[in-house]
UniProtKB/TrEMBL annotation:
This is Probable transcriptional regulatory protein M9R32_06765. Belongs to the TACO1 family. YeeN subfamily. GO terms for molecular function: DNA binding. The keyword Aminoacyl-tRNA synthetase does not apply. It comes from Paenisporosarcina quisquiliarum. It holds the Pfam family TACO1_YebC_N. The lineage of its organism: Bacteria, Bacillati, Bacillota, Bacilli, Bacillales. One of its GO terms (biological process) is regulation of DNA-templated transcription.
Amino acid sequence: MGRKWNNIKEKKASKDSNTSRIYAKFGREIYVAAKQGEPDPESNRALKVVLERAKTYSVPKTIIDRAIEKAKGGSEENYDELRYEGFGPSGSMVIVETLTNNVNRTASDVRAAFGKNGGNMGVSGSVAYMFDATAVIGIEGKSADEVFELLVEADVDVRDVLEEEESVIVYAEPDQFHAVQEAFKSVGITEFTVAELTMLAQNDITLEADAQAQFEKMIDAIEDLEDVQQVYHNVDLGE
């Protein structure tokens, strides 16, 4: 894989040092997942994925329970899941995933965040073809060879297994997310350093200093929008 997940997650964590923001995003995502299916992670795969992700970001149980109870209570609050694609400076590409209860507001806000920072919105499909939907699961305490052998024995297909700093990170097709986790759980591993369904660029680019500064300003503006859940891009921001 071109990008090391631990570096990506560290940068995301530093930007999300305002924990109230990341908790609010997870609360919204948990509510939507619970409302779209059964409010039980054992019978609602989408909810189970969100809860696994929330666990790796240390989202408090009170936030999780409140979102699920809101869904159980039959709240009329509805959100649309929308994806926007766009371009930043020097050939950079960006995917923005949102949950919104006001489509016009969100589209306007995302377009403005691009436009005011040297970027522009693209049409649907203009960027996504350069990214791969990917399951990313990380653990500690084993080597990459041990993890690879474990997954082979469990008959789980993966794209790659890499040692990244203190973790071993597994990259797999999205439909293998649960299979990878179950393989780990079968040998007593229940804690994950990362458990994400994400979009990884097929090829990263490096920007000149001025372009990178402008790009980071654009990404910050997009990520600060209330309706934005995830932002993916193809820029190597360095260590």
